[in-house]
Structures are given as structure tokens and as C-alpha cells.
Amino acid sequence: MTHNEERAQHADQPLPPAPVNDEKGTAGVDRPEGPISAAIIAAGIGAAALGLFTTLAEASTDVADWLQWNDRVGPLSGKTLMAVIVWLVSWAILHLALRNKPRETGRALTVALVLIGLGVLGTFPTFFQLFAPE
Hints:
Layout: H1 3-11, H2 34-59, H3 61-67, H4 75-98, H5 105-123, H6 125-128
Helix pairs in contact: 2-3, 2-4, 2-5, 3-4
């Protein structure tokens, strides 16, 4: 039997089923990018929260006292822990809200970069000292 005859003989047999993807049921289907976008945006929100808490602690002695959870560390302990809490809560909420969205990472990156920029700005002494009481 020649090679062409073998190929013709197997042509009548059905093709094996395509591999199954757990998310959508068929291979080759993209998974939603919403969970990735949620993580990216939440990171930006956490950075912005750190900048906000830093600026608020400089602007108000009451806020600084409230954020002083450890005497050896000072208000930095509260600022960082509150920023982590904001980050985790925002990540959970955004994950639920965006979990089925197909294509969001481009916008998410833009939003996160703006939020990270605001967060970095809020942690610069030349910025947050503008809000310090005289």
C-alpha cells in the first residue's frame, strides 16, 4: 500500500475531538482579561492610597496620631497597613466586577499608571509639606 493510499484510507475516519479548555469549553478561546485588569488597577489604587494617607498624616495631627499604630515606627505603620488594606479590598471588589470582561488590560494599565503617579506624588516631601499646618 502506498503512502497516498494510506492517507486516503484514513481520510474517512473522523478527527479526534479538540482539546477542551476549562474556561470556555473549546481550545483556542481567549480567557477574559478582567481579573488581570483588576489586579493592575488595584495596585494603582493601593499606591494612591499610600500617597493619600501620607499627605493626610502631614496635614492633620489627628490623622497622624490615629495612624501611629506602633510607637517605634510612628505614623508610617498605619499608612502602609491602611494602604495594603485598601489594595486588598479594591482588588477583591474589582475582581468581582471585571471577572468576565474580555479585553480591559490596556485601559487598566493607563488607569494604574495615573494612580501610581498620584501615589508617588503624595509621598514626596515637597508635596505633602504643602499641607502641613504652620
